[in-house]
Amino acid sequence: MAISKTTGAARMAFTLALALAAGAAHADATLDKIRQRGTVTIGVLANGGVFGSLDPATQQLVGWNPELAREVAKGLGVKAELVQVQTATRTQFLISGKVDLLIASMELNPERADILGYAPTPFFRVGGAAATLKGSGINKWEDLRGKTVCVSQGSSYAKPLSSDYGAAVKGFKSSSDSLLALRGGQCVAAVHDSTLIHPLLRNNPEWADYHAPIATDVLPANSVVWTRKGETDTIAAVDKIVQDWHRSGWLIATEKRLGIEPAQPLLQELHAKYKQGS
């Protein structure tokens, strides 16, 4: 018996609705699974420096990203299992289920929000800074037009550098590879999170010939905790934890203890907001 186009379309829509509902149910089960096993697996980026690095003495991940990850676990009442991720593969680690959450220097933008979920309250704000040789003649973003600029693969800075400033962007597996390429003369500048560039140039004598001359950041954006799409229970639980950090001033205290400079004004703004609302 022939099936009408209307009936076929209705069945297809019904099947799709069931699939979406099943996916949502599975996704919302993530928080229950975390609590049942007593562990949350969090992907963290540790490219060196105060925002994340490997302590050679203990072989433990230390710094801003790892500390926030452990504090999320504490807020959820479970143990933290930290997984070191790379810029190019961090999203795949989350989507594939290798990690439950990401705290990996991955700022909020529309492209990422289309494919991932996130706790909406930010815990930092970061933009891109350019490291370049002193005397390179680079003083503003427009000076990069027609010049080769090194970035990490998957960096959100690649698009504005190319489309807005006309740079020839060259991607590398990690920020370490990108910075090595800069030192090797493969590019005129390397653009990475300002939280990586400024401490590197300020504290490392090996970088004494380099500086970050551009006063503004490219593409400043909020840092958030990332989840898979549709994980509403997980998002709500994590967002409450982040709001509590702001309310108590824990983020400001942690920033100061770790020596993060310059201090992020967003933290003071959100501390005042949530403290007032408590």
TrEMBL record:
<keyword id="KW-0732">Signal</keyword>
<feature type="domain" description="Solute-binding protein family 3/N-terminal">
    <location>
        <begin position="39"/>
        <end position="261"/>
    </location>
</feature>
<feature type="signal peptide">
    <location>
        <begin position="1"/>
        <end position="27"/>
    </location>
</feature>
<dbReference type="InterPro" id="IPR001638">
    <property type="entry name" value="Solute-binding_3/MltF_N"/>
</dbReference>
<dbReference type="Pfam" id="PF00497">
    <property type="entry name" value="SBP_bac_3"/>
</dbReference>
<protein>
    <submittedName>
        <fullName>Transporter substrate-binding domain-containing protein</fullName>
    </submittedName>
</protein>
